[in-house]
Amino acid sequence: MNNKENETGYKFSSDQTLEKIREIQAVFCRERDWDQFHPPRDVLFDMVGEVGELAEIFRFKGHVEVGLPEFSKEERVHVGQEMSDVLLSLVRLAERCHIDLPTAVLQKFELNREKYPVHRAYGKINKPSTENTAEKDGKTDTTGK
Amino acid sequence: MNNKENETGYKFSSDQTLEKIREIQAVFCRERDWDQFHPPRDVLFDMVGEVGELAEIFRFKGHVEVGLPEFSKEERVHVGQEMSDVLLSLVRLAERCHIDLPTAVLQKFELNREKYPVHRAYGKINKPSTENTAEKDGKTDTTGK
Amino acid sequence: MNNKENETGYKFSSDQTLEKIREIQAVFCRERDWDQFHPPRDVLFDMVGEVGELAEIFRFKGHVEVGLPEFSKEERVHVGQEMSDVLLSLVRLAERCHIDLPTAVLQKFELNREKYPVHRAYGKINKPSTENTAEKDGKTDTTGK
Amino acid sequence: MNNKENETGYKFSSDQTLEKIREIQAVFCRERDWDQFHPPRDVLFDMVGEVGELAEIFRFKGHVEVGLPEFSKEERVHVGQEMSDVLLSLVRLAERCHIDLPTAVLQKFELNREKYPVHRAYGKINKPSTENTAEKDGKTDTTGK
Questions:
Q1: What segment(s) does the record annotate as region Disordered (chains A, B, C, D) (predicted)?
Q2: What pTM, to 2 d.p., does this model score?
């Protein structure tokens, strides 16, 4: 089984919904009377901090392989915790902004399908629309955004 | 109905699961042969870029209220798109790291409940354990992380 | 003296050059044999982490005034330390990329002067070229970038 | 000449001071009446955005060598511009916070020298004080911060 097949096979093990995560988080904050500290920009600063903590785990590592085979068990747990913090900040931010995140994600996928048609985007790191021209801002994109 | 009650009432409208988002994203990337461009650190850089794009919407705004009442419809759509990009990067990153994000989030909630017991954390911006001492690193935290 | 005049009067107290900071940092790293850990992307991840630590100081603060009048002395020292960390990461990154940062900054100012001519940019938060049109990406900019 | 010697030889070509950059930037903003848009947190959001733009250049690149030998001339110019934007945001932020950045940097170096004594930090990626113990937060650091 090669690497691509292996990757194909990786799945999350739970059916956790974004709404359930939002609800648990909202109850958690309400029980502690923390809504007062969470206007949108304050939660966004928190998210930037959490992204920074995640980035710190991956610095001074050199190349890191799919599946983190060289990470210790403790490091893997730590990665999961920091990713969770980023997710919690993001879900909280969406709630505080009254942005319907799970719906927005589906709409974004539709945009991405239009922006990166398979026959033009296949195996290419640049946006299809700009691949033959000097890109003004030098951006490349292979995540469909 | 006061603001706190109002906030309590905000919910996401869909039952979208993280696993479903992961799967749609994985298929999207596989169809375009993009797995080759997505080792963990490359996806993490992408996420940092997406967080930056989200932050750019909120700069030069001054204070922003819960629910984004002063944002135009176009700005709200834009916020939803950039939040979606952050979420997609994060879910993709978790997949590429083989981190079971929905499970990790639940475990993080358990840690947060231990770290911020209601009777000590209620209405306080500092970590309960440090509220009466000079914090060496000056960190405060009210998102339970 | 009003606030604007006051702000005008704030100056850094030293004539520290970017090259001197680069040199001190380079010697510091070389003495510890750390060059091996500092390819460009690893230093960039470090910078993202440092920006996150700076952001964490400013979260849950609500509006923060010019001059940080409500920060304690300890908080101000902490802010200076985290800003220093960001600067050190950036200078180190420029060195590792062989980018002549002090020269690049001057060139960027020239670009900014062209992009934001005073008579069109005065007192406006949007880019002059887009102020009368719906901006596709919703970006605003008042720092001349 | 090996790589380490080569790196040692890289220098910035100008004697630009942080104070001069601050002054040029302050005049630029004052001429455009932009001080009103730049309370500290708004400038910090701007910096997060600029860091994101810098990160976007380095994503999907795989490993990047010292000196950016595989970058095109246009990409190198772009990197310099985005680094400049980060620097300008940081200098502006320091000014708006009334933080004496060039002085703070020197004080930080003193702290770093105490924290990472050569005989203990030489060639090691972990903080000397924690190298033999499981680090609670999993942090590693080789930039002396």
A1: 123-145
A2: 0.88
